[in-house]
From TrEMBL:
This is GTP cyclohydrolase-2. It catalyses: GTP + 4 H2O = 2,5-diamino-6-hydroxy-4-(5-phosphoribosylamino)-pyrimidine + formate + 2 phosphate + 3 H(+). The keyword Nucleotide-binding applies. The gene is ribA. Its EC number is 3.5.4.25. Keywords: GTP-binding, Hydrolase, Metal-binding, Nucleotide-binding, Riboflavin biosynthesis, Zinc. Belongs to the GTP cyclohydrolase II family.
């Protein structure tokens, strides 16, 4: 405890806000990014922004990607998250510059990994993703995008072209002072294992997924 005690015997004030901690080169299969690590002192989460190329302040192509261990790391077909992350990283490289903010603490739309797995078990029994969360007494979507806006501020980004099908992400950035010049669709072809999940996102969570029309009409 001595490292937290000041010269007058008082505890040092607790840090708040988002702090840039490190900037390291990150060569990937997509291209060479800069991995800029942040500490969110308010929530205790470690965050990272993957920056490609020289970004300016305006109309930067970005993705706010919510952490999804099952999709991003394990290749789960229950959702389209892993494919969206792959598509977003490829898009910023093709653009020549852009940012993917990987938001930890967003697992399962903010309910955490174990709760998400419990919700997935209920979905296997016939509930949709909204019903499953509510059956567990959990919010449908507990994510907060304030930290993402603060990271973009730190990077000097004022306006973005947001790769997302979720109107809530756009609204959240605007509410935090980031201009969204364009919302760029990030549409992944559905498969047998995620079509019901995707339909629920469109019908109950207002995600813009027009590519499902062809699947709906042919099913």
């Amino acid at each position: 405890m001595t490292d937290k005690i000041g010269v007058l015997g008082k505890k040092a004030p607790q840090r708040t806000g988002v702090e840039r901690v490190v900037n390291a080169p990150l060569p990937t299969v997509y291209g060479k990014f800069q991995a800029i690590g942040y500490m969110d002192h308010d929530r205790g989460d470690e965050q990272v922004a993957l920056v490609y190329g020289e970004i300016g302040p305006d109309d930067v192509l970005i993705r706010l990607h919510s952490e999804c261990l099952t999709g991003d790391a394990f290749g789960s077909q229950h959702c389209e998250c892993g494919d969206q992350l792959d598509a977003a990283l490829r898009a910023v490289v093709a653009e020549g510059a852009g940012v993917v903010v990987y938001l930890r603490g967003h697992e399962g739309r903010g309910i955490g990994l174990l709760a998400k797995l419990r919700a997935m078990a209920l979905q296997a029994e016939g509930l949709d993703t909204v019903e499953a969360n509510l059956a567990l007494g959990l919010p449908v979507d507990a994510r907060d995008y304030g930290v993402a806006a603060r990271i973009l501020d730190d990077l000097g980004v004022r306006s973005v072209r947001l790769m997302s099908n979720n109107p809530r992400k756009r609204e959240a950035l605007v509410d935090h002072g980031i201009t969204v010049a364009e919302q760029v669709p990030l549409l992944i072809p559905p498969c047998e294992n995620n079509i019901t999940y995707l339909r629920t996102k469109r019908e109950r969570l207002d995600h813009h997924l027009p590519h499902l029309d062809a699947v709906v009409s042919s099913s």
